Every structure is written in structure tokens, then in C-alpha cells.
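Page 47, continued from p. 46.
Same chain as before, 207 aa.
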Amino acid sequence: MISFPGTLRVHKKLPKEAFYKRLTLTAAAKKRFVSDIDEIYMEWVLSKDGLHLDQKGTIGEIDILLITLKTKAYAPSVPEALARGIPHKLLFIMKYEDEVQPAIHYGHLYAGPWRKEEEIDLKAEGLSIDEIWQNFMKRIILTDLPEEHQEDSLKDKVALQNKITELKKTIDKLEKAVWKEEQPKKKFEIYTKLEAKKKELEALIHG
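Result:
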């Protein structure tokens, strides 16, 4: 369940045209901005005072944007452009029909899986806005991070997670290639590469 204090809910519709004209977009991105996005809402604003937090941090506030979509296969460049145009930390709730997808921009867009809203566990957890942001990052980006790397810098944690994610994609492709390949020699070569990638992933996750 997406659960934030009702007192912090804004639900203010933001005109698409205002973003469209103000943001620096390529021709392709402009086209996707129009074709992919239905409506944009500033849904919640999380701040220290609003959440009655005692601890200060480096982050002033987190804005949570609800973006209703015309297509589930939206272009990541659209929310990425929005993130570059808004000065605060942003958590996106992408919504298509009866499914939602949380997403965060950190260098580029990181998106979680599509789920029914009641299946999403997203709330403001932490003693400061910084901790709340870190927990959003952990839930959406750092999903496979080994416990021993929890104290690493955010940059290092994201880099490790990216490496794990890419390895998983490579393994998935190699597994499909093994099943499709009919030549025994070629099949063995792919299988050998697959096993090496699996061992590399195992080492990253479990040491």
C-alpha cells in the first residue's frame, strides 16, 4: 500500500504544457511526452516539518509525482526530463490503468515492477528526510544489495546494484541462447560463458 500522511497530500494537477515548453527535450522526447503521459499530479510533499521529524538532514523535501499514463511502455526519458526540471528529490508513481510502478531518478530512471497499488509497500520510514530518501532508494533501486555493503557510499551501492542487474540480464540472455542453440560446440561455449556469469553473480551477492 502506498501510505503517506493525508495532511501532506497535495493532489495538484500540473499542466503538461508548462513542462513541455520549459524543459529541454529532443524532438523524440517531445513526441513521447505527448503520446505517453495523460496527467501529472504533485501528489505528496514530504518535509521535516510536515512529518514532525526531529533530525535535520541535507535534503529539504521529497516531492512525490503521480503520473497517469496512456501507455504502459512509456519512455524513461519523460520522467527523467521532469526530474531535471524540478529542484527537489523526486519519487514517481507511474500509473497505468489499475497498476502502479514506483520509480526514482538517480543519474537515470530506476523503476520497480508493475503491481496493483495494494501490493506496493511504500511509506515514509526514517528519522529524517535523508533516511526516508535512503529507504526509498533501498526499496526501488538497491533491491539485491548484499548486507555487507549497506554501509558503503550511495554512489558505490548504486554502482554495485547496477552491476548485479546487468549480470542478471546477461544470464537471462545466455540461458535463452543455450536453449535455442542446436550446434553442440556452440551450445557448450554459451553454457560455459553462462556458468562463469552465474559464478560472478554469486560472488557479488554472497561473497
